[in-house]
Amino acid sequence: MFLLAIIGAAGAATGDGEPPPSLSGCHVAPGGHNNNPGTLEQPWATIGFALTQLSPGDDLWIRGGTYREAPLTSSVSGTSGNPVSIHSHPGEVAIIDAAFAEFQTVGNDAWELHDAATETYRSIGSSYPTSATWIGSFVTADGDLYRMFLYGSLAHLMSTSYTYDPSGAYYRGPGFVRHSDGRIYIRLQNLAAPRDAGVPAAAPADHPVRNTPPSSAGFDPRDHKINLSTVADLITLSGTHVHWDRIAFEGGDRGIVFNSASHQTFERCRVYGQRIAFRFNSGNSFIHVLKSDVDNGFPPYISWNEVKTDDPIAPGMKISVSTTDENNHNILFEDNRFRRCFDGMAVVRSTMSNIRFLHNTWDFLFDDAVQFNNGVTNFEFGWNFVNGPGPGYNGGGDPAELHSKWWHHNIIDVRRDEFGRRVGQGGDGTEWRRSHAAFPTHSVSGNTPVKIYNNTILMEQNINNTGARLERKGDTTLGVHEAWNNIVLQYDNREYVRGLKAGSFAIHDYSLFWKFHSGNFAKFNDYPPTDGNPSTDYANLAAWRASAGFAGTKSYYAPGYEANSKEANPQLSAQANPVDRDYRPSPTGPAASGAADLSSSGWPGATSASWFGAVDPDAPTGLGGVGARVVPGP
């Protein structure tokens, strides 16, 4: 019912978002005029005006080009049988852009050199507004988008110190400042001393922090597309039954803001360069984002610890794909690609329900893919590929339905290096941390049983040494937390799982574990005690099964925790080459058979298949349908 209700909002779209050939309806074009009738031959000039002219059942066709109309507000509405559809013209892309035009053309003359030593430039114009919502990014010659720091002062921007200073007086990497003289000052220079910035000497020479973009076209801002804007919200929507097709939303502090909207579908859109791509204020329902490309542009040269501390600038870089308020329901993200974000989705409000993330791809994710509140009801995270940490617990409260959270058939590869901290942040700058656990944990309370099944998890240590974190969280004494049929691979001398808790409210069995490190660190840490005895560490699965702790779990789960699990190499191609992204286990290996039959569970995607992990060993591709199934975007 949930999926059908949302797809029904798409209305006039056909196939894969392709428009009907007649192009009947209303039209906007850069050369039009709002006094025109809005026909193909005599189009309107602005999207904002067109949105005030639409009625249920209308199609709006927008010619390719850049429309600098932000901030936009739309309350246009259709009906379930006659939705409003808004498309880019076939073969073209309409861009709603919040940025100043003068800085966006490569080869522009909008900048002049201010200081040769630091390669700092300043704008020719000198009347740019004072604003709390300045946001900036640049595009490299290779087409990659990166957010820029908004420095606190010109002295900070031009600093030749790379050591962390809580006052902000050090150079972090490319950024800008709006000065009191009305000009914008910008510096795109590489980090002059990447080792001092926190990169260990052993880091590869081609590591992204060593070669801070832009590396291929120098540091003159005139040679790059620079996006600078003062727009808080690019577009705010409050209507119902509207389908957006192949539209690009670029710039602004927040991209698409939903404010009591419903039945809105975004298909093959592009959302680039915002601090928050999608913002859900309260009271939204049946919002579907599919086959879209979202790039927050989080730069690799800012450290994780800077964002997490009270640094006066870096918290503004806590970039998210989506944030939410209370009372949002029936939200679906499907077949999208999310790139270069710090946090993924924040679903941290307790009065939310029917939230689903299916078949999405996260590339270069620095923190949790999704943070969810314990009180969220009907939360599904399935068939996603995550290059970074997966969904994490955050917050308290009991859901209206206890058995309503499912994490399944995901590939969570957290082996990617991540810039941990600079010199001056409590270390010598050599810390190059691996990403979080597969399922991170924040402040948690209440009852939050989750069904975690058929995931493929690849770890190489993690910041808190907590393993995959398959265990239950919070005060769960109601409902059964369960973990089945997962593949857990550890590439460092650390644990598989840590802190498992025994009780009638948890089941852990039928998973496959394997380590690729010869060290003897215990692989099952703080495992369940028998009554009155402390938790114990176990070197391997055999040691656990021979323990009194294992025998004690039989009073909660008759076979005993992990009684049918395996410790064996699943023989993934991707285990040796992450770039390959072939996560199929060997069809003749230990992961190909022996998994639990979950077909009677009623859980989404659960089947009687006997293989472990997220990908069928006989799948035709290395991802086996996990992640985005199309090339997202317009």
Largest beta-sheet characterization: 13 strands, parallel
Mean pLDDT reading:
84
Q: How does the overall form come out from the CA principal axes?
A: globular
Spatial order of strands in the largest sheet: 1-2-5-16-19-22-25-28-31-34-37-39-42
* Cα separation of the termini: 28 Å
Relative helix content: under 10%
Radius of gyration: 26 Å
Give the low-pLDDT segments: 1-15
Overall SS class = mainly beta
Number of strands: 46
Count of DSSP H/I helices: 7
Strand content range: 25-35%
Structure notes:
By secondary structure, the chain is mostly beta strands. Helices cover 6% and strands 30% of the residues. It has seven helices and 46 strands. The strands form six sheets. Strands 1-2-5-16-19-22-25-28-31-34-37-39-42 form a 13-stranded parallel sheet. A 13-stranded parallel sheet has the order 3-6-17-20-23-26-29-32-35-38-40-43-46, with no helix packed on it. A hairpin with a 4-residue loop joins strand 7 and strand 8. The two termini are 28 Å apart.
